Amino acid sequence: MDNNTNHTQPRFEISDRKRLVGKCVKMSFSGNRTGELWRSFMPRRKEILKKVGNELFSLQVYDNTMDFGSFNPNTELEKWALAEVTDHSFIPDGMQPFDLEPGLYAVFNYVGAASEGEKMFRYIFETWLPQSGYVIDSRPHFEILGEKYKNDDPESEEEIWIPVKPK
């Protein structure tokens, strides 16, 4: 495994409830529409009022039947591009609110190009998770894209938040 996975152990955090606003597309990994989603979201992100910070959220909602032990690239999911807000009193046209409920997350720091991220996710689900004492909880997964996020730059940094619960 290359060093993009950093062979890091996660930190564990209980997230606060977060109110988010953004755009969503339904897709599968084989019919990946992530680029299309972000290209439609980024020019309009300034329309989102009452933002909390400048971080963006790339969030996935998987069907409760998603089996992370046997990956199926045709499994449908909702992919969101979001910003955190203080409340949902103003939603720009064409955007939707999203409430992220609190819960326990394993948080991995990832340094590397977005195009190499699959290796990190394989490490998380195929190596770390089976040995961890945790299982996936049926809540949204997300990445926080902060000021050090640079998309496909090898120096890009982001946090990967995986919802977990004890086995």
Question: Can you give keywords for this protein?
Answer:
single chain; 167 residues; mainly beta; Multidrug-efflux Transporter 1 Regulator Bmrr, Chain A; 14% helix
Short recap of the structure:
The protein has 167 residues and is mostly beta strands. The protein is built from 2 helices and 9 strands, in the order ββαββββαβββ.
Topology overview:
Layout: E1 11-15, E2 18-28, H1 34-41, E3 51-62, E4 76-85, E5 96-100, E6 103-111, H2 117-132, E7 134-136, E8 141-145, E9 157-166
Antiparallel strand pairs: 1-6, 2-4, 2-5, 3-4, 3-8, 6-9, 7-9, 8-9
Structure report:
The protein is mainly beta. The protein has one domain: Regulatory factor, effector binding domain (Multidrug-efflux Transporter 1 Regulator Bmrr, Chain A, Alpha-Beta Barrel), CATH 3.20.80. Helices cover 14% and strands 42% of the residues. The chain is built from two helices and nine strands. Strands 1, 2, 3, 4, 5, 6, 7, 8 and 9 form a nine-stranded antiparallel sheet that branches. The radius of gyration is 16 Å and the shape is globular. The N terminus is likely disordered.
Number of DSSP E strands? 9
Give the end-to-end Cα distance, rounded to a whole number of Å: 26 Å
Shape: globular
Mean pLDDT: 89
Q: What number of domains?
A: 1
Count of helical segments? 2
Kindly provide the radius of gyration, computed on alpha-carbon positions and rounded to a whole number of angstroms: 16 Å
CATH topology: Multidrug-efflux Transporter 1 Regulator Bmrr, Chain A
Strand content: 35-45%
Largest sheet: 9 strands, antiparallel
Query: Mind telling me the CATH superfamily name?
Result: Regulatory factor, effector binding domain
Which CATH architecture would you pick?
Alpha-Beta Barrel
The helicity comes to: 10-25%
Give the uncertain stretches in residue-range form. Answer: 1-6
Structural class: mainly beta
What's the helix-strand series?
Answer: EEHEEEEHEEE
